[in-house]
Specification:
The protein is α/β, with parallel strands linked by helices. It is built from nine helices and 13 strands. The strands form two sheets. Strands 8-9-10-7-11-12-13 form a seven-stranded mixed sheet, covered by helices on one side. Strands 3-2-1-4-5-6 form a six-stranded parallel sheet, sandwiched between helices. A hairpin with a 3-residue loop joins strand 11 and strand 12. Helix 5 runs antiparallel to helix 9.
Length: about 325
């Protein structure tokens, strides 16, 4: 049975991705973004005024103690994700956590255990599952019209200093493996419909100040034989972003953000794939629909957990 009442959702995190979620949630009927949480109350109030959010508050605890709040979207610093996901579930709130849900397998498994114990909706922001370009590929695979032989993926940024997507100073350090590789590791298994059975990684030298590897190379193989080659760098001076090449038995396709073209650079219209071209909006719509329909969402903790098990195995290789 579908729950048709207005869903009151709180947003934790007033940064670049918090703004994306605020805009997306405003476009979903029957949803009220009731509060935004920021580490500084003044910033929360400013964000609320600028983005049409009900109110700004200075702590997640205040939101979790509010019985009128149904769910929380976490767009907070990565190191806080696991702890805050557990807090939301323990407080009886449905939760969507931006990728990654955790930076260790133990923390990810703890979040999954909490979801199973509470029966609440717990979803992770694996946005690539929702982007229309990747959905278009997925539907062709499911229909038996296209079989992926290899995915060749490049994730390239220039982040030699600790700045966020808006070019502002960041209080935490981003991570190529647990954040950016997670997108592709999950997408590869999802698109091929086959679990990852082999995974290897090499990394470059650590940054002298950030303390993280700035370059990473990952090789994956699915049970059905498909390959994935993933190159990641924080040293790349343009073009920036993630670019996907799908090599298959009946064609080659290149996905660049919301655009999809053939191997001959012929555009493919993906505007009719879903109700929006905005992957964040489609992700948020799935979160809301799963709560209303009392069902497991796409990109649930359970469905993305194999990705985190693969990341843990890769980390073991890199640190042993």
């Amino acid at each position: 049975m579908t729950d048709d009442r207005t869903l009151r959702i709180a947003l934790a995190g007033g940064g670049a991705f918090g703004a994306k979620h605020a805009a997306a949630l405003r476009r979903i009927e029957g949803v009220e973004v009731a509060a935004v949480v920021s580490a500084h109350l003044d910033e929360a109030r400013k964000f609320a005024a600028e983005h049409g959010v009900g109110r700004g508050v200075g702590s997640l605890d205040e939101v979790l103690a509010d019985d009128s709040i149904d769910a929380v979207v976490l767009a907070t610093p990565t190191p806080l994700h696991a702890e805050q996901t557990l807090a939301c579930l323990d407080a009886g709130k449905h939760v969507q956590t931006e990728i990654p849900v955790a930076m260790s397998l133990a923390d990810a498994e703890a979040c999954l255990a909490a979801q199973r114990r509470t029966g609440l909706v717990a979803m992770v922001g694996h946005t690539r599952r929702f982007n229309p370009s990747h959905q278009w590929i997925n539907r062709r695979v499911r229909a038996g019209e296209f079989s992926i032989q290899q995915m060749d993926v490049q994730t390239y940024f220039l982040r030699r200093s600790n700045l966020n997507a808006l070019g502002q100073p960041r209080s935490w350090t981003d991570h190529l493996l647990w954040h950016h590789a997670a997108h592709t590791v999950d997408l590869f298994a999802h698109q091929t419909g086959s679990p990852i059975v082999r995974a290897h990684a090499l990394q470059g030298p650590p940054h002298p100040e950030l303390g993280i590897a700035m370059d990473l190379s990952v090789q994956l193989q699915a049970e059905n034989g498909a390959l994935c080659t993933l190159s990641l760098s924080f040293n790349n001076d343009g073009p920036l972003g993630t670019f996907f090449r799908y090599i298959g038995d009946t064609g080659t396709y290149l996905a660049r953000y919301d655009d999809l073209v053939t191997g001959k650079d012929e555009p493919i219209d993906v505007s009719g794939v879903d109700v929006s071209l905005d992957g964040i909006e489609l992700q948020d719509r799935e979160f809301v629909a799963a709560i209303r329909d009392h069902r497991e969402p796409e990109a649930s903790l359970s469905r993305v957990m194999p990705c985190y098990r693969t990341l843990a195995a890769l980390e073991t290789q890199l640190t042993s």
